[in-house]
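Hi,

I'm pasting everything inline rather than attaching a file, because the server keeps stripping attachments. The sequence lines come first, and each chain or strand is labelled.
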Amino acid sequence: MEARLVNLSDTISVRRLGRLLRRDFSVGYKSVFIAMAAVGGFVILVSVLSALGRELGPIHFQLYFPLLFIGGFIVTSMIFKEVHLNGQSVFYLTLPGSSLEKFLSKLLVISLGYAFGSLFFYTAVSSAAEGINRVIFGYGHSFFNPFQRDILLAVAAYVVTQAVFLVGSVYFRKLAFIKTSLYLVLFGIVLTIVVAVVGWIIFHDFAVGSHIRLEPYMEELGRSGEMEAVLRPMAEKFLKIAKVLFWGAGAPVCWIISYLRLRETEV
Amino acid sequence: MTDTGIEIKNLSFGYTKERLFSNLDLTLESGNIYGLLGKNGAGKTSLLKLICGLRFPEAGSCSVLGWQPQYRPAGLLEDIYFLPEEFYAPAISAELYRQIYAPFYPRFSPDTFQEYLREFELKGGKKLSEFSYGQKKKFLLAFGLATRCRLLLLDEPTNGLDIPSKSQFRKLLARAGEEDRIILISTHQVRDMENLIDPIIILDEGAIIFQQPMYEVTRCLHVELEQVQPSGDGVLYTDKTLGGYVVVRKNISGEETQADLETLFNTVIANRDRIGELFAPAGMKASAGGTASGAAAKEDA
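And the predicted assembly:
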């Protein structure tokens, strides 16, 4: 007799996904509330102090970004912590739910959940802070507008970039945030070296000592009209491809890697 | 391969290049409370983890209730409850635990759960973090039994339980044994499992060297307390004890004597080849507790 086939209902069920989400919330809500209280207190304090010093710049815009990105990356790095802890890992992996459901429940919480949760939370806290400022001083900073284009763009960028830390969370047993950050720095260094070497190989004819001087060549291209006709469209095409890769491919690739790693996890 | 039992065929697995299991065969049938015995490092916990999909076989097949556990399908996990030796109990109240986790198990019985909690003298409103180690374990055991999963895997379940709790545990487990359920208990505490686990599986050096129901043990082995240490070919095992020597021989008289699990384990470990020969014909007849198997057992036979 053949082994039973895993069908769609064993792989994904909205009901089981809901149970996993409910479980994550029920077990972790206290830590979330404590973190919210700490961040809320900090935001109000900074807002009041800067109003007191009459520094009325776009403070909430500046405060929200670290909360969204740094806070989000730290939380993302911890999202699969239980997969790496003795006892908890057995408990979590044998919890009735497919690997896909377990992955999706965490992904929803940490991407859309964190992004919109932090947006809603920050709007409320900054409004409270500005209310306090206006009551105490009669003036305050401008209100935080969650529908501002830059804010919404940042939220979208967070949803994409946090996927890298999600991979780190599944892979690294300990210090996932630090290790992922170090890997990113390492990747940046390697990429810089590769670009430098490739640049040197391509443009070594324009080398003057240890530097590449492209100015005379560029001027010549500008004069001949090739800059506008050839280079600009090429650069625009590259930029377009980079944008598509960033917004469309980066996160899904990281999600697939994370899911596969979770599915292959042995304890 | 059935969708009610466990069938492991030619399974190979290891943590290093040196394999822990090589061509392991094991068949477990529903309606039994199996006892998995073995020395430290024999692979008992690894076997349990392979069965519930926490470890993946390198070669061979493992079918659990008709599923391949390495994919950890939700349908299988709904029917498995694994209580490891190092368990996790979240810092929430017992009642909240039930509310959160019971819906994951379609056959969970709240009434049975309450009954087991009462028997273990546990209060549902208390936080699990306020429970002692033994209480947490009893709570998780009660929950696991109440899930009415078809496969219950327990790794050293009586470690950390006090004397009355061990007795309660035996009673509850004896009651929990159902026709469609397999209970597999890995343990060193053989005295706690006396008269509960049957058939007995002994794992040694990565192979199943013994898998027999207790009635076959009684039929094939004769255990006696003697004053003088015996010698000779007929003696399988002797152990000095209070009041004399426990002596295990091949049962040729047909008289029924009871071998305790510790004596049985030591006899099997000390006489792998001879036990294999002694039980080989019986093993073929024995069907109630599954089939005797394992690479070593095959070699011995």
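Chain A has a mean pLDDT of 92.

If the labels don't parse on your end, tell me and I'll reformat.
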